[in-house]
TrEMBL record:
This is Thioredoxin-like fold domain-containing protein. Residues 59-219 form the Thioredoxin-like fold domain. Keywords: Membrane, Transmembrane, Transmembrane helix. It comes from Gordonia spumicola. CDD domains: DsbA_family. Gene3D superfamilies: Glutaredoxin (3.40.30.10). InterPro entries: Thioredoxin-like_fold (IPR012336), Thioredoxin-like_sf (IPR036249). Pfam families: Thioredoxin_4 (PF13462).
Length: 238
């Protein structure tokens, strides 16, 4: 006896086939989107790096305008590799600036905000640097810059960062600016603009730390300060 005669309510079901076809169709669409995205990315054109945009959106600039070489340093305060970069090359950069050999434009990015417990440490750190830029000198910046990397794993509050700035010699105006988070939103906008220029230079990759010289990525920056000697001696042509 057939199954049909055993169960008069039985009806043949083609649902499983339709589901299979639907899943196949979805898979085809997903693959097409992925392939299309890859092709779009590979064919995307990137304009030349705009030095004016870099200059206008640097969080802090140190060094004489007459220095023979200008470099752009891209960092994120929540980036462990940036912390290592600061430990290995920070002193050499400062020495080169004081000696008049280089002018440095620091760009504090914030794409690692979400990785911090507060969800915005990178932006708040960048905002703090802007407060220093408006009121204090490079020595205060260098001290706070170093301390923010040292404290990055602790995710300090605005009040904590303000106290670090005070200990670094910041003015009362800077301390209040940091404690109130006055320039965090402006720091975010500047980070976006700087990230766009970094993306143009690297053809789509935004990674920290990165150093640009004449809009060109400098190699070997995580190996120690030798890269800086090379840039000063043999700056790339723009």
């Amino acid at each position: 006896m057939s199954k049909n005669s055993e169960n008069k309510d039985y009806e043949p079901r083609a649902t499983s086939s339709r589901v299979s076809y639907a899943l196949i169709a979805v898979g085809v669409v997903v693959v097409a989107l992925v392939v299309g995205g890859i092709l779009w990315q590979s064919n995307k054109s990137y304009p030349p790096v705009d030095d004016k945009v870099l200059a206008e959106n640097a969080s802090f600039i140190v060094g004489d305008r007459t220095a023979p070489e200008t470099i752009d340093v891209f960092e994120d305060f929540h980036c462990p590799h940036c912390k290592e970069f600061e430990a290995k090359s920070g002193a050499a950069i400062q020495a080169a600036v004081v000696a008049g050999k280089v002018r440095v434009r620091y760009h504090l990015l914030n794409f690692l905000d979400k990785e911090s417990d507060s969800g915005d440490f990178s932006s708040r750190g960048a905002g703090a640097v802007l407060c220093v830029a408006r009121n204090d000198n490079r020595d205060v910046f260098w001290k706070l810059h170093s301390q923010l990397f040292a404290k990055s794993g602790d995710d300090p509050s605005n009040a904590d960062i303000a106290e670090l700035a005070r200990a670094a010699g910041a003015s009362p105006a800077t301390v209040t600016c940091i404690a109130d988070g006055k320039l965090v939103d402006e720091a975010r906008s500047m980070a976006d603009a700087s990230s766009g220029q970094l993306e143009n230079s690297t053809k789509g990759s935004v990674v920290t730390p990165t150093v640009l010289s004449a809009g060109t990525v400098v190699d070997g920056i995580t190996d120690g300060p030798g890269w800086l000697d090379d840039v000063i001696a043999n700056p790339p042509k723009s």
